## 1
Amino acid sequence: MKENDFIVQVRNVSKIYRRGEEEVHALREISLNVTRGEYVSIMGPSGSGKSTLFNMIGGLDTPTSGSVLIDGFRLSELSPSQLAWVRCHRIGFVFQSFNLIPTMTALENVAIARIFAGVPPAQARRDAAETLERVGLGHRLHHLPSQVSGGQQQRIAIARAIVNKPSIILADEPTGNLDLHTGEEIINLIGEMKATLGITIITATHDMKMLSASDVVFWIKDGQLERSARKGEIKIEIGTIDGKTLA
Amino acid sequence: MDEPSLSPSSREIPDQYPIPWSVAFQVSWAGVRRRIFRSAITMLGVVLAIALLTYMLITESVTDALVALNLDDLNLLLQKAGVDIFSASRVDSMTILLIVLSLITCLVGIINAMLMSVTERIREIGTLKCLGALDSFIVKSYFIESSLQGFLGTLLGMIIGLVVAILIATIHYGRYPLAHFPWGDALSALGIAALIGILLSIVASIAPAYWAARKEPVEAMRVEE
Ligand SMILES: Nc1ncnc2c1ncn2[C@@H]1O[C@H](COP(=O)(O)OP(=O)(O)OP(=O)(O)O)[C@@H](O)[C@H]1O
Ligand SMILES: [Mg+2]
């Protein structure tokens, strides 16, 4: 596979957190590649380093050693302003706890991301309305986050993540705060974004249902890549996965 | 780690678009409006301090004007109200001390209230940075927010101070204060109060705004429930 088919490259990334005397090795020399346009799930027990890895890929935190490349650009070589540009235009973040701005309506929450991309406010609101329509919330434009359900809040967050047409959605446990049924709807919606917009999806999850939507699954454990599997191979292994991670 | 860079030149990635003040203003104004109760608490300190200042200044110019009239029955009323009609200056050092103290308290109050509201919104700031907000946007929006609260508080304080000063003067001296209201002096008194109020709010906004901008986007990812 050609080098530039990989939209995300993680190369020998280590992350050590220091709490006084104690050192926590959250990631140990982890390397992995994500192919453009694929749906990637990262699985692993609690504390295995999934969120730490996400923070590195999103350029929210810097590795202790190793490097992360997005679209071939080494994040560590970018200025804070360029990094903000990458977060704005290339990456759509989806959070476990939705992270909507409580004082902004659904429309404003989505429009603000568009405004950061340099779009004039009036146009930003039109784009936001269109995107909310796309995620099935055309009838909730002027509601505050507190006035809609958790599933709907996550839909707003997904609209916010895709409004700038990013190449990647980074979703750390997007269904963690949702019930089973709503979680499934959100996974389907994220899958749809991959299918219709060609966005590369990277999610972390404990949720076995996520796996059916995935093209690739990476298992990480103690900050290391334990193994990976592609779509065809996943089903065969599910029995063992079940036994391993859900035990 | 030190392998030669295979990446294309990082210069190909543009700088992030800086949000203009006008747009930051729209965003912050909406926030202040929706958090009106919270904003009111922040404003309260400014309102009280500026009301006191305005009251003192207006009362002084009204008494000055009445003393200048030099009418017998009015002089009697003035003396009954404890005004020394023969002295040129009627503001004693205690009053000035009181005003200065109230202004300092107000300054500390705004800074404290703003720092608290930044702490409450660490996750919000982190989220905005994940969406591509630059530090400069965070500085702008928090600066605008606390200045706005300062301006509104100043305006409200001036109105309250003016109304109370006229009310009390009318109680003491009947129809004279309004009939001979010193418009010019009162206007410059209001100007001084406005200037001090606005200056105070701007000075108090700077530290919280920069503190807010230093919050890291990683904070947004952390789940605290
Ligand atoms: N800011 C931090 N300071 C110190 N240690 C940290 C910090 N963040 C994470 N860690 C530690 O790093 C390790 C990996 O944490 P991480 O949050 O990446 O795990 P995770 O796989 O996302 O877990 P979960 O499934 O519970 O979300 C854990 O041992 C955690 O305690
Ligand atoms: Mg996590």
## 2
Amino acid sequence: MAYAYLFKYIIIGDTGVGKSCLLLQFTDKRFQPVHDLTIGVEFGARMITIDGKQIKLQIWDTAGQESFRSITRSYYRGAAGALLVYDITRRDTFNHLTTWLEDARQHSNSNMVIMLIGNKSDLESRREVKKEEGEAFAREHGLIFMETSAKTASNVEEAFINTAKEIYEKIQEGVFDINNEANGIKIGPQHAATNSTLAGGQGGQQAGGGCC
Amino acid sequence: MFSRVRSAVASLVGGFMAGSSSSGERASGADLPMKFPYERPVFLGLSQDEVECSADHAARPILILKETKRLPWATGYAEVINAGKSAVNEDQACCEFMVVKKRPTGSFTPCKPSKRRSSLPNGEGHNLSESSMENAELVFHYWALFDGHAGSGAAIMASRLLQQHIVEQLQEIVDILQNPALLPPTVMGDDLDHTSTPCMPRALTRASSLRNSPCTAAPRFFTEKKIQHESLVIGALENAFKYMDAQIERERVVYNITGGCTALVVVFFLGKLYVANAGDSRAIIIKNGEIIPMSAEFTPESERQRLQFLGYMQPHLLGGEFTHLEFPRRVQRKEVGKKMLYRDFTMSGWAYKTIEDEDLRFPLIYGEGKKARVLATIGVTRGLGDHDLKVHDSNIYIKPFLSCFPEVRIYNLIQHEHGTDDVLVMGTDGLWDVLSNEEVTEYVTSFLANCNPDDLNRYTMAAQDVVMRARGTLRDRGWRITDDRLGSGDDISVYIIPLMYGNRQS
Ligand SMILES: Nc1nc2c(ncn2[C@@H]2O[C@H](COP(=O)(O)OP(=O)(O)OP(=O)(O)O)[C@@H](O)[C@H]2O)c(=O)[nH]1
Ligand SMILES: [Mg+2]
């Protein structure tokens, strides 16, 4: 499908906070009650519209477990947006945010937009982290913030779309160099007729051509 | 594998990879329809979006088997795309469980006289009571890796079809293989009553053979070579490679099938692992931490003598531009008449010869190690496809120097006990270029030792771990691995196959 821009996102945060569920809710509008530990990286994609423009989100869902940390770190590169997720019912996942943030800042490009997400807002009775704490953390570190529920889908759309809006604004402001793919942004085929690699079906014809 | 067909000498090579008309009278093929569209291995079950994500040359995501998908024997698999040398990942993989049924009686096979079939019901009835196998049906497990170069077409086609060719070859010999007690007959159909009476006393067998023999006096039994069953399987694998290559050659006229590929195939059949290798991928078995190499690479250096001999016997294949002799470096005009070190196909050592004009030609094999090339073009000497590959800007074909025949090695799996950490590791050269057998063994062994033995994902996680260690991480000066060594910028694909399931199955 044709798009004006493609944004690469990465979802990070401790294991079990609901990263894969957020992605699934956003792409498939489904909730997955059992925890399928992510053991590497998984991908999702969806088209959204911002300012009348079609934008394709390419989302990388990473493994939160400590033992996969070095692999996860290697995927920050070239992401335009990051969803940094904690679980409002588990304070330790909130406490680990600083480490995640350091990791992200160190391994990604400096313009990456980071959305802080307090997930599982449906579990109000088990809440361990106040909403205000999340807001304060976000303010302190210059992040956008939202509480979501991958279960009820509350704020899930908004989390992904608001991140995209922020990236889009940065493009308008000229902060992002959109011709540098290391920024996690690609221009769609109709906007850059010469850029054939974005057309989707990367056929064997192209393979035969090589690229260097 | 793109780099493997890049020239050691820039002036000689370049255009052929684009399938450009500069290198041939035949149409480039780019206008023809695709035989199979580009994709990642079928068992990964990736959507088009996922395939797109995976082709990120900057982040190089390691693709693994999804938690919901399982391969036979809980086989682990991981792969990663190259660092930018080709637009797509030119490695391919296939893993399947195959059934070999005896060919239906309707199909005509010239070497099987019809007389044979009339005796079948007995034989089949016998087999049924003897073993669990049903009506002349055998099964095998199949794992394969293909490393494409100069395009992904041949690798994709081979990854879809080679197993079918193996089935076809084995179909011919199902009856024979089902009778392990009896050596394969020299002439099919001749000693046929044997298939129905494998336990027949030797004297009787001989008598019946004598009776059927057209020349009863000749003591042919005593001079005949005894061919083992496993040799028949090896022959079937070898011929499957040959027919696969022939199919690519035939169909490239009607389809766009680009490039060529190496092929590394593992077949578990009747209790044995057969490892067939044509190219520079590699398989090793790790058993109790010990390494058993199951393949050898075929490169310009390892096959130098075969190639030189061919160039010597058929000099026209060198187009008057290459010499089959090897020199330590290129000969210069001013050195004509002097004595210089050289070696021919008859030598592994070196000697001096007086340099003649002919020796000024470019050497058939040139370069060292990973940079060694045949005809200044290709760095791997066995595999499938490459029928249109020519030396740049010339009419010299590379294919005659390439062999599609695999070397087959056997591991008698069921004769050994295997623990949960005993595995077979298969990898394309992207892995082995940067990690030694010992390093891979150490990584795999220590990773598995730290896993929950009941976790069915452990072999996939181990595969992901070694791919990660071979890829490394992107630093200021490129991809780096342990000790700041250069990581592999090539496509990397790895299977880790636990062997204990082979014991359980038998
Ligand atoms: N009640 C509730 N449960 C949730 C929500 N989001 C996720 N869960 C549950 O939390 C568990 C973990 O969710 P996942 O999405 O698999 O966690 P993850 O962050 O991907 O974990 P890793 O893959 O290990 O990094 C699952 O059992 C989900 O059902 C939510 O919004 N509300
Ligand atoms: Mg997950």
